[in-house]
Amino acid sequence: MHFMTALEAAWRQRNSLLCVGLDPDPARFPAHLQGRPHAILEFCTQIVDATADLVCCFKPQIAYFAARRAEDQLEALIEHIHTRHPGTPVVLDAKRGDIGSTAEQYAVEAFERFKADAITVNPYMGRDSVDPYLAYPDKGVILLCRTSNPGGSDLQFLDVGGLKLYEHVARLVAEEWNASGNCGLVVGATFPAEIARVRALIGDMPLLVPGIGAQGGDIAATLAAGLSTHGAGLMINSSRAILYAGQDENFAAAARQAALDTRDAINAQR
């Protein structure tokens, strides 16, 4: 499955730009899952099964699994998504960024061990730190550009030859690093003006947009700034607002309703 092909099919067939982030925090799980040995996998698979027809992709955050020695549950979760919901892309949110030889191992981890369809990567060590991921032309490489956190401006707004650093990154990825057509960028919904600037620099390259829901990003502003010429081009991520919409044994049904409401709110503004 080529990541971009699967993503474009999901945008079209499911009429959805919604990405559900899988950030499992056992402290927030319903009581009946507390203390169970595979609670993370149980929680996440129920969320996935309840929402898969409403999303363009899922985005598990590796830290929530690794911190609890649950990497085996992450492997099982991604296998579950691919088996039960074929064609649904999985973006491993790892934000890796290291020198080439180490990056090669991170690429093996993401694409061969976990079998993710895409990974988030920090580009700030330069091209040789990204090449090991680009060596998998069927996999998505989604590079941090203008992040949703307030502190992102500390570096991303620095002047680089008349461009802000995030603008330089956007242009570099679009013009030099995207030879296989498998790159995307992360641009936060909390900065719609910067989304518009990035879109102007990169054309129709996909954008992963965190920051709606709990972080307060505005859906209408995000869409006005970021839609591609084909009326898609966005993976608009929501995590906590969907995962923890319900607190009892019906948590998956509550998550589905929250995902449905979010997807429909997005489509109403398209």
TrEMBL record:
Domain annotation Orotidine 5'-phosphate decarboxylase: ranges: 17-255
Name by which UniProt lists this protein: Orotidine 5'-phosphate decarboxylase
EC number: 4.1.1.23
Sequence similarity: Belongs to the OMP decarboxylase family. Type 2 subfamily.
InterPro entries (alphabetical): Aldolase_TIM, OMPdecase_AS, OMPdecase_type-2, OMPdeCOase_dom, RibuloseP-bd_barrel
Source organism of this protein record: Thauera terpenica 58Eu
Top-level lineage group: Bacteria
Catalytic activity: orotidine 5'-phosphate + H(+) = UMP + CO2
Any GO molecular function: orotidine-5'-phosphate decarboxylase activity
Keywords from the UniProt entry: Decarboxylase, Lyase, Pyrimidine biosynthesis
Active site: 95 (proton donor)
Matches recorded under HAMAP family: OMPdecase_type2
PANTHER family to which the protein is assigned, alphabetical: OROTIDINE 5'-PHOSPHATE DECARBOXYLASE
UniProt pathway: Pyrimidine metabolism; UMP biosynthesis via de novo pathway; UMP from orotate: step 2/2
Pfam families listed in its UniProt record: OMPdecase
GO-annotated biological processes: 'de novo' pyrimidine nucleobase biosynthetic process; 'de novo' UMP biosynthetic process
